[in-house]
Design goal:
This protein has 234 residues and is an alpha/beta fold. The chain contains eight helices and nine strands. The protein binds adenosine-5'-triphosphate.
Length: 234
Amino acid sequence: MFDGAASIGATQVLPRIRFELPAAEWTCLLGPSGVGKTTLLRLIAGVADEATLDGTIAASDGAPLAGRIAMMAQDALLLPWLSVAQNAMLGDRLRGAAPDPARADKVLAGVGLAAHAQKRPGALSGGQRQRAALARTLMEDRPVVLLDEPFSALDARTRVQMQELTATRLRGCTVLMVTHDPAEAARLGQRILILSETGLAEHPAPPEAPPRAVDGADTLAAQGALLARLRGAA
Ligand SMILES: Nc1ncnc2c1ncn2[C@@H]1O[C@H](COP(=O)(O)OP(=O)(O)OP(=O)(O)O)[C@@H](O)[C@H]1O
């Protein structure tokens, strides 16, 4: 449960909001640029050192959130001196656990980077780097996953594939994904939230389980309604 507002210095960077993330469901968060979506994710992940939270963040089971969250940031920070495979296994390395190269190979193959596993991030395209960061997030195997525009740099075909792969792999996880794409929210969201300067609003999600067909009637209707609402809010 999140209940609070956030500021940096004297500036409010997240309006006061209150919401719960339903367990094992995929929640999509949309809203205009600069409204505080990334700040919200960073606060939940416990890495928003720049911001001051006036409120509380708590898991419904009362246990600490630390150690249960994987986050894929917008500026996917791959370490430039490590290979793609080593980046994918970074979580284990940082925890001092034994890395699992066979699993990394599998996850990298899943995101279409098998042929690039030994390359440095600098030798990849932006979309390939984003898939490498996605692989690292999937490798983490955490019950709560925060995704900040994870598919934004991908071409249309790869985006649809990665949405499907991620939805399948994260089934059973509690996911909060920031996206600017109403089509993506209509495909993946079991709950759709819109953040604005005045607070949080909920938008109805299609009833089918994600990933929904791109051209499904319910998906297209939800996409259209969401876009109209976002335009109205602009
Ligand atoms: N480190 C920082 N120092 C000062 N202000 C910041 C910092 N990080 C973010 N902000 C400000 O906080 C506000 C919220 O930023 P945030 O990145 O959370 O927005 P967002 O909704 O994720 O935007 P976008 O959709 O463009 O990614 C913005 O006004 C931004 O300028």
